[in-house]
Amino acid sequence: MKKIIIFIERVFLKLLPKCFLSDKTFIKIKYHIMTGLKLNLKNPVLYNEKVQWLKLNDRKPEYSIMSDKYEVRKYVSGIIGDEYLIPLYGAWESFDEIPFDTLPDQFVLKCTHDSGGIIICKDKKNLNIKKIRKSFNKRLSKNYFWHAREWAYKDIKPRIIAEKLMLDDSSEGINDYKIFCFNGQPKIIEVDIGRFTSHKRNFYSPQWEFQQLINERPNAPLDSVKKPETLNLMLELAKKLSFNLIHLRVDLYTINNKIYFGELTFYDGNGFNSYEPPEWNKTFGDWIKLPCFSSQ
How far apart are CA 249 and CA 22, in angstroms? Predict the structure, then answer.
C-alpha cells in the first residue's frame, strides 16, 4: 500500500503546475515520496526533517548570493580572501555567448543556479558543442528552486561560468572535502573520491577519525584517503564562512597543499538523505539547533 501511495504522489507532483502547491504542502508530499516517512515540522528531530524546516523558515536574502556559484566568489573573497578562489575565465547569460575560441584547452563549465550543471573539458578539440549547448540551454531555462523548494536558489540569475580545470596526480581527480558546520562549528567531514569515475564517499570527524557511515555512495578503502596536510586550515576557513549560521556545508579542495573553495550548500541532499546506519539521521539532526519560533 505504501508503494502505491508513493507512486500516486509522484505522479501527482509531476502533473501539477509548479506553483499550484504551497511550499509547505509540496515539501510534505515530496518528503514522503523520497523517504517514505511523514514529515514532522512542528517538532523536527531528524536531520532530513530539520533541513525541510530550514527551507521554509530560515530565509535570508544573502543565502541566494551564497548559493550562486558566481556571486559567492565575492562573498568568499570578502571573508577569507580571493587566494582561495579557483581562477575564473568568464560568466555568460547565454551559452552562445561563450567564446570557446579564447578559452584554454582545458576548463570547467558550470551553471550558477542549480546543482549538477557541470561539464569538465580536458581537451577542447574533442568537446561536443552541440550536445552541451542543448544540455546547458535546458538548465538555463529552469528555476532549480521548484525541484525541491530549496529557497536559496529561487532568485538566482541563471548563468554559465568557466573556471580553470584543477588537477592533481590522481587518475580519479581531486578529492572533494565537504565540511558540515553547525552554528559555525565543523562537526563532520564528507570526502568524495572519484566523483566522475567510481564515486565513493567517506566520513571523518574534525580530528580525522573515520566514521562508520554510508550516505548514497559506498565507502572508499581507508588507505586510499589520506589526512590532508591542510586539514586544520580548512576547518578554520569553514568556521569563518559558516559563522553565525544555523547550518552550512562548506566544500573545499586541496591541491598540492593549497586550498581552493568549491561551493556553499544549505540543504545537503535536498534533505532527503539515506543514512546507514539510520541513527546518523538523528545525530546530524541533533547538531542543528533551530531557533525558538513557530514553523509555517
Answer: 27
* DSSP state letter for 217: B
pLDDT in tens, 183-242: 999 999 999 998 767 889 999 999 999 999 999 999 988 888 999 999 999 999 999 999
The amino acid at 134 = K
In this structure, whether the domain defined by 87-163 belongs to CATH 3.30.1490 is answered with yes
- Which one-letter amino acid corresponds to residue 240? K
User: Where do the structural domains in the chain lie, given as residue ranges?
Assistant: 2-39, 87-163, 170-287
Residue 96 and residue 136 in contact, taking contact as beta carbons nearer than 8 Å: no
Helix, strand, or coil (residue 195): coil
Which phi and psi angles does 186 have, rounded to 5°? -65, 130
Question: What Å distances lie between residue 86 and 81, 112, 196, 218, CA to CA?
Answer: 12, 14, 19, 28
Strands 275-276 vs 258-265: parallel, antiparallel or unpaired: unpaired
Q: Per CATH, is 170-287 categorized as 3.30.470?
A: yes
